[in-house]
From TrEMBL:
Cofactor(s) needed for function: pyridoxal 5'-phosphate
Protein's UniProt name: Cysteine desulfurase IscS
Name of the coding gene: iscS
Annotated pathway: Cofactor biosynthesis; iron-sulfur cluster biosynthesis
UniProt entry keywords in alphabetical sequence: 2Fe-2S, Cytoplasm, Iron, Iron-sulfur, Metal-binding, Pyridoxal phosphate, Transferase
Source organism of this protein record: Acetivibrio saccincola
Amino acid sequence: MDRKTIYFDHAATTPVSSEVLEKMLPYLKGNFGNPSSIYFLGRESKKAIEEAREKVANAIGANPREIFFTGSGTEADNWAIKGVAYSNRNKGNHIITTSIEHHAVLHACHYLESDGFEVTYLPVDENGLVSPEDVLKEIKPGTILISVMFANNEIGTIQPIKEIGKIAKDRGIIFHTDAVQAVGSVPIDVNDLNVDLLSMSAHKLYGPKGVGALYIRKGVKISSFIHGGAQERGRRASTENVAGIVGLGEAIKIATENMEENNKKLMSLRDRTIEEVLEKIPYTRLNGDRYKRLPGNVNFSFEFIEGESLLLMLDMKGIAASSGSACTSGSLDPSHVLLAIGLPHEIAHGSLRITFGKDNTHEDIDALMDVLPEIVGRLREMSPLYEKVKRGNQYV
Ligand SMILES: *Cc1c(COP(=O)(O)O)cnc(C)c1O
């Protein structure tokens, strides 16, 4: 990074770690062969892909034959949802998901609704938790798929995946989980959890952008999504992103091996930030479950301010974080996740997500706490509502 930045947005993306880059480089240069070619260079690429497949499989307790590489986490989600929907249409047209999924799942479901499928979007409680009983209640004879994310990218809440997996398994319904935020942060065993399909992405765990994977349990009926060549055993065509796949394999391996140690550090940063912010800044709430949450995630709502202004002012101090507004879509609508946990629009607007990574330090939090209370205070000075509260009028 040229300009000195304190980076607090690891849920958005992470840098490629030097260990991962080292493993990738040979496949961008000398070992550039097409994995489908039968000569030495091609075979070397093929071997690298199969080694990566093994690493990914090991990280989630799967068989390497059940791992299929994709072009992203978004593609893995789209494949899981549309692939199951279209190949199981003879059994029914009903899908159960939640109202706090990533747009890769939500928009795939909206698309299916436009094509005759029926989708139930489960509500969540005030901490963002899905209730397994709610899943059970919504199941009907035509239910062909349940898709519940492992951990939420905005508020960090970790869902009761094992309970939901058991419900799905007992009724013979295919169960997909978007584990893009969870892989490498939460121990995962697809057999223990009864998960049938699981989405991953490399760039959320110090791998490269533009590569992901979908775990597909042996025997699950799912149609192909990208048609063309015979790559990925004929199920996902196109010449493989060899370097990217190698990067994903190495990144998952490293993240899984270092999970415990990393999490201990992330949780100490997280818990300190939660305590200090709640103590030093009044009219603030923590979004997401206090304990069932990703080790590196904090998400606050500050009443009487706009998250966008807060982000810009933090940026001027060299701090990169995220807010709950869907700024990617160019709109300033508050996040669907924050609305789903019951926040009123104006409070959802004033939110801040900080997601820690392996290179953050307590000095980074010192720097944050040096400026955050003051910035929030200054923004509140501009709010007419806050004026009223300060004058002792009742909060309206
Ligand atoms: C980032 C993310 C995705 C999308 O992954 P890409 O590789 O960026 O397409 C999907 N789901 C969740 C929960 C994410 O955080």
